[in-house]
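DM from R.C. (forwarded with permission)

"hey, sorry to bug you on a friday — could you get me a structure for this? deadline for the figure draft is monday and I only need the backbone to look sensible"
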Amino acid sequence: MVQLFEDERLDFLTIKEEMKIIQSPSVFSYSLDAVLLAHFTYVPIKRGNILDLCSGNGIIPLLLSARTNAKIIGVEIQSRLADMALRSVNLNELTEQISIIEGDLKDMKTKLKQSSFDVVTCNPPYFLTPAKTEHNKNDYLTIARHEVKCTLDDVVKACKLYVRPGGKVAMVHRPGRLVDILTLFRAYNIEPKRLQFVYPKKGREANMILIEGIRDGKADLHLLPPLYIYQDDDSYTEEAENILHGR
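My reply, with the result:
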């Protein structure tokens, strides 16, 4: 039996109904962007090593474990979130496959082997918001959503540091940071290879991007078909429904 604290709850993952995750409305609950990133990400099926940065409550390692036998390490700077992730890993009996490290992605050199991961994933903080008056009053949410503990540059630099030459880096972010991401990928020798825009509905502006790059890859960017989440009646599109249920 897993121990839950304060307002924590157990949710079932839709892609694999027997899998559960610890969530908390006041600390961290995963959202659609993590599910889309886990679906978008290339994974080696039988073996390999995957690193997930800004891991939160461990949602991406848990989702990826349903698609691969590779070893997965999640890195999370917030103690409470790292503990939630670790308890979810234990709850799902995935300790042989998933490890959670509490720490700063800028200071992992003694804990992670450089240039050793086949895939690095990251769902980083989205917002620059340098003024404290613009931050969320909840410190957990501020750190998860705003670049107060790490910048986009820090994130891409860490991705480059730990992905092997020829390995893949996958990220979800906001369209407004696309030029920054492409610029930083190139600066750190991660060549953008696949890019997909995610739209809430047809006729609306994109509100997410999914991007994959290859370390030391050659220039050859593929723009994937648009992904629409909702139909006009606010029900999920067939494609979104399939992603949410791991089909």
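R.C.: lifesaver. Residues 79-91 form the longest helix (13 residues).
me: no worries. The first strand starts at residue 9 and ends at 13.
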